[in-house]
Design brief:
single chain; 317 residues; seven-stranded parallel beta sheet; 11 helices; 43% helix; 19% strand
């Protein structure tokens, strides 16, 4: 299903993943509407395509959003308006439920009753696996989330699957692993970069540095999203979105230090509650659709650090 000239809606389209996806959609010729809580920072995320998209500041739980979807005649909705923090879900689990699971079920019900021909692509997370029993993690593996965030994402997947099976909603859920890149203002790569910029001589890591993550650069992730939309079965299935390789947190920290020309002394603390120890994805399912990651960790880190430095120069960080 080609994206060219499709009318598409991106919820959370001014956020980190959403803004890059919007750029990709515009590049491929889609007619894009963005719904987001727009503030100065998030609007800046869309500066490259600002004049080529329709931007609406709106909470997706409002009745106005339901009218927008029902009347919009969208071929696809890319649903990325949801919390993206394990630690915040541990601190405020009910907020995570409201903004993640509840809002997604409301959207599914809206599609069922008003526009069942619209394709839905939802953002899930590798957090659904918890601490995996075996590696690499395959979509059919048991899921044992260890945080409210992971529980919410797994529940979203199940609802998407059931709505697809019972009501014919064409949909897929994407289990993103450790995303990173320009515009991301949280999580491991951003946090380590900020720490090293502030103090290039010392760096404290959560855990002992041997924890592993399967990191995927944002440009590769966007290509994976579009690949699933254009070539996936859209029958409520799930896809791992990752590189299929893993790096230790220490390797990531050293790559960032190299990009910043820093040589820090490392210290370590206890792991954060809710964080898994090790992740590595099996991405054969999305590979069979034609996706292949292209960005090395070194290149992705270099691009991210360059963006961070630019933001400092602009006074935006």
């Amino acid at each position: 299903m080609a994206i060219e000239e499709n009318r598409v809606l991106v919820t959370g389209g001014a956020g980190f993943i959403g803004s890059h996806l919007v750029e990709g959609l515009v590049h491929h010729g889609a007619d894009v509407t963005v719904v987001d809580h727009l503030d100065e920072t998030r609007e800046t995320n869309l500066s490259v395509v600002r004049d080529r998209v329709r931007m609406i500041s709106m909470d997706i739980r409002q009745s106005e959003f339901a009218s927008l979807v029902a009347d919009g005649q969208f071929q696809a909705i890319f649903h990325f308006a949801a919390p993206a923090s394990v630690s915040q879900s541990v601190e405020a689990p009910y907020v995570d439920f409201e903004q993640g699971l509840q809002s997604t079920v409301q959207l599914l019900e809206l599609l069922r009753t008003a526009c069942s021909d619209t394709v839905l692509i939802t953002a899930s997370s590798a957090a659904v696996y918890g601490n995996p029993i075996t590696l690499p993690m395959v979509e059919t593996d048991p899921t044992f989330p260890i945080s409210p965030y992971g529980v919410s994402k797994l529940s979203v997947e199940r609802y998407v699957s059931v709505y697809s099976q019972l009501y014919g909603i064409r949909a897929a859920s994407l289990r993103f692993f450790s995303l990173y890149g320009p515009r991301q203002r949280q999580l491991v790569v951003y946090d380590l970069t900020a720490k090293l910029v502030n103090d290039p001589d010392h760096l404290t890591l959560l855990g002992d540095g041997t924890e592993t993550r399967d990191l995927i650069y944002i440009d590769d992730a966007v290509r994976a999203v579009l690949t699933v939309y254009e070539h996936g079965a859209l029958a409520g299935d799930v896809y791992n979105i990752a590189c299929g390789t893993s790096h230790t947190i220490m390797e990531v920290a050293r790559a960032i230090a190299d990009a910043l020309q820093a040589a820090p002394e490392f210290t370590f603390t206890e792991r954060r509650t809710g964080d898994p120890v090790t992740w590595r994805a099996d991405i054969e399912k999305v590979r069979q659709l034609g996706f292949q990651p292209e960005t090395t960790l070194h290149d992705g880190i270099s691009e991210t650090v360059a963006w961070y430095r630019e933001m400092i120069q602009r006074g935006a960080i």
